[in-house]
Write a structure and sequence with these properties.
By secondary structure, the protein is of the alpha+beta class. The protein has a 4-stranded mixed beta sheet with strand order 4-3-5-6. Helix 3 runs antiparallel to helix 4 and helix 3 packs parallel to helix 6.
C-alpha cells in the first residue's frame, strides 16, 4: 500500500502544481476531454469522489454517498451519476473548490496509509480490496490531471506512476469483459514501453493467447477513455486484441 500512497501523493502534487497559478479565468477554462466541464468542474468531481472513497475506507460509504446525492434524481450509470453530482454542486468560488479537493485528498491519503491493503471496502461497483480502491483513485487522479492539462494546452506526460495503473487495467480485464457480457478467449499479456524506455511485461499464469504491445502511456489513455486505440501506437496479436482495446478500463 505504501507504494500506491506514495504514487497518489505525487500525482496529487502534480495536479496541485497546475492549479496553484490559475486565476478565475483559468479555473473556468473548458476542458476538451470532458465536454461541458471546465477545470473547476474537474476538480469538484475529484473532490466528490475522493470524499466517497474516504467514506469507503472509513466504513461510511453509504452515508457519504447519500449525503452527496441527497435530492438528486436517480441515474442509470456511473457516468450519469458523476455528472449529476457535479451539476448539483458547481458554482462555488475556485478557492473553495481547490481547498475542498486539497483537504479531502490529504485525508484520503492518510486513510489509505492506515488501512489494511487486503481489507474489503465498499465502492460503487461492489466491494474490493483497499489497495485496489487506492489504485483506482491513482488512476482517476492521473486521468483528470490530464484533463486539466488539456484545458491549459499542456502536454500529457507519463511516469513510473503509470505502472500500477497499467496493472489495474490488466488485472481487471475479466471484470471489464463480464460487465460487457463478453468472454475472453484466453489469458492476455501486456508488453508495454514504459515512459523511461524500459519494458513492462505483465504475464498471466497460463500461456497468453492475446498480447497487447505499445506505449504504456497510450494504454492508460485508452483505458481511461481519453483516447481511441486506433489513434494510438497500441497493437497486438491474438484473437482478443480489438476487444481488449475496446473494453480495457481503469475505472468502473
Amino acid at each position: 500500500m505504501e507504494e500506491i500512497v506514495d504514487a497518489l501523493t505525487a500525482q496529487h502534487q502534480e495536479l496541485e502544481d497546475l492549479l496553484v497559478p490559475l486565476d478565475d479565468v483559468g479555473w473556468a477554462t473548458p476542458t476538451p476531454r470532458c465536454p461541458g466541464w471546465d477545470v473547476s468542474d474537474v476538480v469538484l468531481h475529484l473532490a466528490q469522489t475522493d470524499e466517497m472513497a474516504l467514506g469507503s475506507v472509513t466504513g461510511r460509504f453509504t452515508e457519504t454517498l447519500g449525503a452527496l446525492a441527497a435530492g438528486l434524481r436517480a441515474t442509470t450509470s456511473v457516468d450519469d451519476g458523476a455528472g449529476a453530482l457535479v451539476a448539483a454542486q458547481r458554482g462555488a468560488p475556485p478557492a473553495e473548490v481547490h481547498e475542498r479537493w486539497r483537504s479531502g485528498a490529504a485525508a484520503l491519503r492518510a486513510a489509505f496509509g492506515a488501512a489494511d491493503p487486503r481489507g474489503r471496502v465498499q465502492w460503487v461497483v461492489g466491494d474490493m480490496a483497499a489497495r485496489t480502491l487506492a489504485t483506482t483513485r491513482l488512476a482517476e487522479a492521473w486521468i483528470h490531471t490530464g484533463d486539466v492539462c488539456a484545458a491549459l494546452d499542456l502536454p500529457i506526460v507519463g511516469s513510473d506512476r503509470l505502472r500500477p495503473i497499467v496493472r489495474l487495467a490488466w488485472r481487471t480485464l475479466p471484470y471489464a469483459f463480464a460487465s460487457a457480457g463478453r468472454s475472453l478467449s484466453g489469458p492476455v499479456r501486456f508488453s508495454l514501453i514504459a515512459p523511461d524506455g524500459s519494458t513492462w511485461d505483465l504475464e498471466p499464469d497460463e500461456p497468453a493467447v492475446t498480447t497487447i504491445t505499445g506505449p504504456a502511456l497510450d494504454l492508460c489513455q485508452v483505458a481511461g477513455q481519453r483516447a481511441r486505440a486506433s489513434d494510438t501506437a497500441l497493437t497486438g496479436s491474438g484473437p482478443d486484441v480489438d476487444a481488449v482495446l475496446e473494453l480495457v478500463r481503469t475505472f468502473a
